[in-house]
Amino acid sequence: MKKFKENFSERVFLLLALSALSVLALITVFIFTKGIPLIAKVGVVNFIFGMKWSPSQGSYGIFPMIVGTISVTLGAAIIGIPIAICCSIFLAEFAPATLRNIFRPAIQLLAGIPSVVYGFWGVLFIVPMIRNYLGGPGLSILAGSIILAIMILPTIISITEVTILALPRHYKDGALALGLTHWQTIRHLLLPAAKSGIVAAIILGLGRAVGETMAVIMVVGNAVALPETILDPVRTMTTNIGIEMGYASGEHQQALFATGIVLFIIIMIMNATAQYITRKK
Amino acid sequence: MIQQSKIVIKDLNLYYHEKQVVKELNLEIPQNEIFAIIGPSNSGITTTLRTLNRLCDLTFGARQEGEVLLDGKSIFNKNVNVTELRRKVGMVFDVPTPLPMSIFDNVAFGSNLNGKKSKAEVEEGVEKALRMSALWDDVKDRLNTPAARLSGGQQQRLCIARVLALEPEVILLDRPCSALDPISTAKIEDSLIQLKEQFTIIIAPHTIQQAGRIADRVAFMLMGDLIEQGITHEVFSVPKDKRTNDYLTGRFG
Amino acid sequence: MRIDAQTSQKIAKTLIWTAALFVIVVLFSIIIYILIKGIPMISWQFLTEIPRNMGRSGGISSSIVGTLLVTAVAVIVATPFGIGTAIYLTEYTREGRVTRIIRFSAESLAGIPSIVYGLFGFIFFVIYLKMGWSILSGGLTMAIMILPTIIRTSEEAIRTVPNLYREVGFSLGATKWQAITKTVLPSALPGIVNGVILSIGRCVAETAAVMLTAGSTLRMPISLLSPTRTMAVHFYILAREGISMENAYGTAALLIILILLINVGFNMLVNRFVSKGR
Predict the structure, then answer these.
(1) Percentage of chain B surpassing pLDDT 90?
(2) CATH 3.40.190.120 is the classification of domain C45-275
């Protein structure tokens, strides 16, 4: 009887553990079955490289949105990564205990603030600032990049900090004992040793940026056109779904799911890469 | 042997993955005595103790050949209820392991798992166990405080009480005093000498001196081999094997 | 020109300190600005009245109730699955193909954008399972979103429980089930609770996924199958459509206060009731 109970509980736990896998499978199956018919009808090349998105006329090309996503994400990377890495070095190496005890929960809080609040803050401060000092409508790639740069900080900072802290203590002691300065030790020893962790952190952070919707909707302007400068408005793949899901139906709705498929594939590739890098270590 | 043997170990070979940890061990452990197994680390002593209540089952890659009889019955038999075996053969570890709960709950832990005892019986059992481990007077007024607040020596006596509350027949102690100061160690040794009236005690002492102070018999193990065993004062005064003599006189480092 | 070691150290240190302080300043400026603008809007009426005139006037009570219910559904559904998975990964199996697949799935789920969850929740719960826009659809979608967080935090918490605890359990005659529930889980509890709290915060803050699955009605929900508009969605609609800036600030301030409470208050609570056990 006891034996039976033990075996039974193991089965139950296995079933619970398979929930993550089955949900992932469900998501894949449902999004793909809903979106694939439209991609099949329009053609993969026309869908991905088409320049025109006009659901009322039946044209579904998402190339401008792919460009939108890439440019906003790149912008976030250029602004956010240096700041994030500085912050994690600060946390792991330089911060006095009291500051660290403020900084760490603050970063956690940064991750907890609703993304709509970031978007709202962007509309109130970043967008007018860009409009007044740099010109253009303000709602732009730059605005999106700045907001996303802030939003990806917690992901990159926390993973990088953990990676640096996990390095064996004797690395640092050894280098300092050789007469290197603290910064030389960080620059030539700790950062290279933590490289794979940092790269994984960056990829995960950028995955966040690619996938973020609500904050981006509010600050990028959402015009479906190829941008010429970073002050032009764009529409990303996520905002395309976020804006139009509310009223889309039929083929139009399928096209939004198809956009979701492209997004899903990009994210899965980024995730798998990050996981591969961390595991290789 | 004059007394009845509580545990008989026959041709026991213990392996961890491919490595043999204990070779052809034969021991008879008499009832109501303190039996010490001494030897340097990596001699297979801990593994041997952990085999006696089949805690080894939990270690991936551990396997055994041979026989261990408890009251004449094999503990490896398929029909043996492992949980009951572990209640009969209790174990105290080398570091104090209070569970994250109150003093009372720690001692009552084993009895509560069974759920067959009434509240009054459990309370009585806890008091008895704490008295036997000489902790009662220290803690009787604060049974509901967290066990982690006790000192290291008190925590270890709590762990002994926790085992005693199960009303076991054999108590295994794996270097129980290695993390303790001399005064706490002396208290525990006193309790153990009292306890052998009712229990059979097998201890892996952390020093040779401890074996000399409390053990009725000792066995000396080295690299998985049993080198010598016998009445403690005989082994300590006239060791038959040169290696035993080297170990006892500190030439093993 | 070569910069000597001491100078480069100084430059680097300055840069790093500046970056860190800059982040702190930005974070606090966001929070403080919203709080200053929003807190004056929060009154008893604001908390207890339902929205009138599309949210132009009245309070946000129906959104508060909706948020709490969606969060409750998500946490109640996801927690057993998350902890169960963590127990399976740590206690019942050794590293191998099964654990790799489960871990890969969980980590992949963690990376999927919330808008994709929204799409899935819409097509699966709302349409396919015919739950419609409802608290249940929204809650179940959120349950899937927070599942990886609960799995990861619980697994980490359970892994840090020293093996000795398990052995103590077993040596006192516990069955595997008893060893897990009586010794391992209580020791891992603070970590597990922390994961659940993080997840509650995510549910409260989430917008995209709930907007597509729970709907956006302002009526007070009467059952789990009623549609609802959570606070984050309400704030988004108020701000984006310029319906009422006052009420938008008020809602945002309330959201931030909730998140702060969840982060700080619960942590203190956990510390208190955990320290009781040790």
Answers:
(1) 38
(2) no
Q: Mark yes or no for CB contact B146/C276 under 8 Å.
A: yes
The structural domains of chain B, ordered by start, are 5-248 (3.40.50.300)
Residue B221's H or E segment, with its range, is: strand B217-222
**Local confidence band at B1 (pLDDT 50, 70, 90 cut-offs):** very low
Is some CB atom of chain C closer than 8 A to the CB atom of A1? no
Task: For chain C, give every domain's residue range.
Answer: 45-275
Q: What angle do CA B132, C176, C82 make, to 5 degrees?
A: 125
For C207-239, the pLDDT digits (tens) are 999 999 998 888 999 999 999 999 999 999 998
Hey, what amino acid is at C256?
I
Shortest Cα distance, chain B CAs vs residue C25, angstroms: 40
The answer to whether C87 contacts chain A (CB < 8 Å) is: yes
Summarised one tens digit per residue, pLDDT across range C170-200 is: 888 888 888 888 889 988 988 898 889 889 9
Q: What is the pLDDT of residue C136?
A: 97
Question: Residue range B67-80: average pLDDT?
Answer: 89
Give me C235's structure tokens.
């704030």
Hunting for tokens 């084993």 — which residue is that?
B110
CA–CA dist C127, B211 (Å, integer): 74
How many angstroms separate the CA atoms of C198 and C205, rounded? Answer: 11
C261 burial via Cβ count (<10 Å: 0-12, 13-18, 19+): exposed
Chain B residue with minimum CA distance to C187 = B100
Chain CA centroid to CA B144, Å: 27
Beta strands at B89-92 and B73-74: parallel, antiparallel or unpaired: unpaired
- Predicted confidence (pLDDT) per residue in C72-96, tens digit: 999 999 999 999 999 999 988 888 8
Across A99-108, A188-197, C4-13, C33-42, the highest mean pLDDT is recorded for C33-42
Burial of B198 per CB tally in 10 Å (0-12, 13-18, 19+): middle
CB B152 within 8 A of CB B177: no
Q: What are the C-alpha distances in Å from A99 to residues A105, B210, C20, C22, C28?
A: 10, 50, 10, 14, 15
Residue B97's φ and ψ, nearest 5 degrees, are -125, 65
Q: Which neighbouring-strand residues pair with B91?
A: B172
Residue contact C113–A210, C-beta within 8 A: yes
The answer on pLDDT for A163 being more than 50 is yes
How far apart (Å, rounded) are the C-alpha atoms in residues B46 and C184? 23
B69 phi, psi to nearest 5 deg? -105, 130
What are the start-end ranges of the E strands in chain C?
51-52, 57-58
The proportion of chain B whose per-residue pLDDT surpasses 70, expressed as a percent, equals 97
Which strands, in side-by-side order, build the sheet including B170-174?
B89-92, B170-174, B200-204, B34-38, B217-222, B225-231
The whole-number average pLDDT for the span C241-249 is 88
3-class SS of residue B29: strand
Cβ neighbour number for residue C258 with a 10 Å cutoff? 22
Interface test with A, best of C102, C104, C116, C257 (most A CBs within 10 A): C116
DSSP-derived pairing of the beta strands C51-52 and C57-58: antiparallel
pLDDT digits (tens, 9 = 90+) for C119-175: 999 999 999 999 999 999 999 999 999 999 999 999 999 998 888 888 888 888 888
CB distance A164 to A93 below 8 Å: yes
CA distance A90 to A104: 11
Q: Which residue has the higher pLDDT, C273 or A94?
A: A94
Amino acid at C151: I
Domains (range + CATH), chain A: 65-280 (1.10.3720.10)
Confidence grade of residue A169 (pLDDT, cut at 50, 70, 90): confident
Closest residue on chain C to B89 (Cα)? C171
Which residues, at least 6 apart from C151, have a Cβ–Cβ distance to it below 8 Å?
A20, C82, C85, C86, C89, C106
